[in-house]
């Protein structure tokens, strides 16, 4: 198993040395001064600006946001590895409040942009410097029909620190403080350690871990239900004022994807539940000599899996070699994350149990967080987050307003990085038994990314729809959860009473409502994209890197067009899902 001492922790001094770093105060003061001057110069004046002055205004707005996002990124990253430290929590909350107050000075800018007539905006965009920001302006103006008055927008922004953000912090700190006593393993385990046990080779440990996890969730479920109900109601109120048709509509708009495209994705995946997850878990139960698998065995290693562990150096080399075989400069970019301490992989108390790649700001660089336990899935997580990181580095030249990509296409590079790494592992494996184990692991990862995330999406949809009529009880939340899990995973998976509370630990429900379908979107997109690559599409590598470098300047149709793909075509989703189905066919053939 990977030795804890060799696992890296990140170096945040690239941003600031500590919460008391004088550079942080200097930056915040500079942002505040510039924000006030910006408001004095431009508030109420946009319609009368010359095109060159409009370009200068956008550039200054971008510069102010760059400072604020850098400061907030530092606070978020520090908190993510110290969620149990009250002083860090206090610092993060204070920082949020100050950044929000400064941001309120510049809030008018996008609101006024959305009030400009199309003809006036076209005139302002005659300047090349302003025209460069067309993609960002397109994104801003797509929300114009949902914009409130300036005073209401300012009120919502300022109250967010005591509203939504405060509930999110309560959720994070609640989980950071949770400890789990696992029979036969030990007491006081963290969430990361317990979740790691759910894929342990020892079935007794998996069962004990699931029971311990369910027990603690049950002890906290009233609080977690209150958080969920409050945030769902908060969203319903704001959606109603902004006149969004459905709870998912705002997310689709920010993802720059049409409602019917998302509906087609969800419907396509749901229509394949029986062919994909139901079929696979029936096969896995057979491998275990059973008709049904308990839910704690869903991600269990196969009976003949030797559960080989990966050292950190092995995982690093495997991913870098896979990236390098595809495109050497992609591996060179990924190498920087290791060389320059941009990764935090060491599990420890108080650290976020998940994984992410935070883009920070273009003038800095991304940071990756994960918890490495030496399993094959941890290698895939490293490949996934490095994909995000490479994407973020390549897109940085687009600048602070246009480097970020919508969630739907943001998952492209991460899932593609996983696929490259998986192919590297499986194509060099000569042992048929080991190849079957790798293939089964990949299928399970794909089911977790596609089927499971679509079931999460359905859970959110039902919860938000029902919340309009009143608060949902703990029992009702559990009923909806068991319903969607049964539909998606199929009759081969068996649940017990404790599993009804497992909805409560999914962070995306709290942090970013309706984020989850983006994983399924990205996986199916990459399956189709990789199929194009495997068929020898001319110039694929450069087209792929160009797609990543485009950041948020292009919508999914523009990004996929060079590869002859179209996400609005129903066959697009069938093509992606057929890759998973084909892997299951292969597993059935050798079973």
CATH structural fold name of the domain at 4-162: Butyryl-CoA Dehydrogenase, subunit A, domain 3
Lateral arrangement of strands in the main beta sheet: 4-6-5
Count of DSSP-assigned helices: 26
Residues in helix, %: 55-70%
- pLDDT below 50 for ≥5 consecutive residues: which ranges? none
Percent strand: under 5%
Class from secondary-structure proportions: mainly alpha
Termini separation comes to 30 Å
Report Rg: 24 Å
CATH architecture of the domain at 4-162: Up-down Bundle
CATH class of the domain at 4-162: Mainly Alpha
Shape: globular
What does the main sheet amount to? 3 strands, mixed
Number of strands: 7
Instruction: Please state the average pLDDT score.
Output: 94
CATH superfamily of the domain at 4-162: Oligopeptidase f, N-terminal domain
Please provide a written account of the structure:
The chain is mainly alpha-helical and 591 residues long. The chain has a domain at 4-162: Up-down Bundle (Butyryl-CoA Dehydrogenase, subunit A, domain 3), CATH 1.20.140.70. The protein has helices spanning 22-42, 51-80, 86-106, 108-115, 118-124, 128-131, 134-141, 150-159, 164-177, 191-197, 203-242, 249-254, 259-271, 274-287, 312-326, 328-339, 376-395, 407-427, 432-449, 451-467, 474-489, 508-511, 517-534, 540-549, 556-560, 570-589; strands at 180-182, 186-189, 293-294, 343-344, 356-358, 367-369, 493-494. A three-stranded mixed beta sheet has the order 4-6-5, covered by helices on one side. Strands 1-2 form a two-stranded antiparallel ribbon. Strand 5 (356-358) and strand 6 (367-369) form a beta hairpin. The longest helix has 40 residues, at 203-242. It is globular. The model has no long low-confidence stretch (mean pLDDT 94).
